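Retro notes (design track)

What went well: tokenization of the new backbones is finally stable.
What didn't: we kept losing track of which sequence belonged to which structure.
Fix going forward: every design gets posted as structure first, then sequence, in one message. First example under the new rule, 335 residues:
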């Protein structure tokens, strides 16, 4: 039985009833270099190649899997070598601290960068493979969620620029304990998001569904027993954790605020939609679970006595305000 409890961003599209990303998006905004990168991520110019011109083409899937796998493997190997060198089991002369470019501060930053790249590539790889295992019918190259949006691409590039400016000019601007906290955040976020996708099974989809299906039910078990919207919770703490891991003070603040603001705007729409589809079930579910996202409150309140629901701020007596964070429908995508 399908379920309906994970809503994602409004800019995703269904491969069955909407154009593919490359034909749908214009990418007219942004700086020319970023626009060029986003066009490559959207596979623009591949219309003449059957295996690359649409999201279900095996050429796209194979290429993305190869690139992600290779980058992950290289950085995992680098991390292993760094660890073995630090233990004294192997010797890497350039890492002995006597070469000016690689001071101990910069070696520590290399550790953090390598772990970040492993986490980033693992995230996108797991997005695809979790979808392929638990919802194979909708799996496509877009399931890697690499080409989410120009905003996502820009944010990633800005964080890399900040890191390498610090590496080159301010390697002492770093806090190892904070970096470790970031590693915990992103690992926890990855686990929570994966559990959300697994719990939803065939109902979790990276693509937007505009209507409720007859066999959709509200998910309230598994990870959803504790978080109403674990996919959003997982992504929020994962994205914030990546910047803490890198030690980027500017992007750490910007990522957290931008992600929070996105969910803050997204929630009212999703809350209203879920209430419309589940007028009897959803208010009780809201009242018994935790959002997981800070300072985001529910617009749903439960009226005592008659069992009805009213919006927050109404004049109805004896109502109870509860907090929430909406992922919404399973058949939706995060951006």
């Amino acid at each position: 039985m399908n379920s309906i409890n994970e809503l994602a961003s409004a800019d995703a599209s269904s491969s069955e009833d909407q154009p593919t990303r490359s034909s749908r998006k214009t990418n007219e905004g942004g700086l020319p270099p970023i626009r060029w990168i986003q066009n490559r991520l959207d596979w623009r110019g591949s219309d003449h190649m059957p295996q690359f011109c649409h999201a279900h083409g095996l050429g796209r899937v194979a290429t993305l899997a190869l690139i992600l796998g290779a980058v992950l493997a290289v950085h995992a190997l680098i991390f292993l070598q760094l660890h073995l060198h630090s233990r004294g089991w192997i010797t890497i002369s350039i890492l002995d601290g006597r070469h000016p470019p690689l001071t101990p501060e910069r070696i520590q930053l290399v550790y953090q960068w390598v772990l970040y790249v492993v986490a980033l590539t693992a995230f996108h790889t797991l997005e695809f493979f979790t979808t392929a295992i638990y919802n194979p019918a909708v799996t496509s190259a877009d399931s890697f969620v690499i080409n989410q949006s120009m905003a996502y691409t820009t944010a990633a590039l800005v964080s890399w620029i900040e890191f390498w400016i610090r590496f080159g000019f301010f390697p002492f601007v770093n806090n190892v304990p904070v970096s470790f906290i970031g590693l915990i955040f992103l690992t926890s976020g990855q686990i929570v998001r994966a559990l959300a996708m697994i719990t939803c099974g065939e109902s979790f989809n990276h693509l937007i569904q505009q209507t409720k299906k007859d066999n959709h039910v509200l998910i309230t078990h598994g990870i959803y027993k504790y978080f109403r919207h674990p996919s959003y919770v997982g992504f929020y703490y994962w994205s914030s954790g990546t910047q803490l891991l890198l030690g980027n003070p500017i992007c750490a603040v910007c990522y957290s605020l931008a992600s929070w603001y996105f969910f803050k705007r997204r929630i009212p729409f999703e809350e209203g939609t879920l209430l419309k589809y589940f007028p009897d079930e959803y208010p009780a579910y809201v009242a018994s679970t935790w959002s997981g996202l800070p300072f985001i409150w529910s617009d749903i309140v439960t009226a005592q006595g008659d069992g009805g629901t009213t919006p927050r701020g109404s004049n109805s007596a004896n109502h109870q305000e509860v907090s929430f964070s909406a992922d919404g429908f399973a058949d939706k995508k995060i951006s």
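Added context from the reviewer: The longest helix spans residues 104-134.
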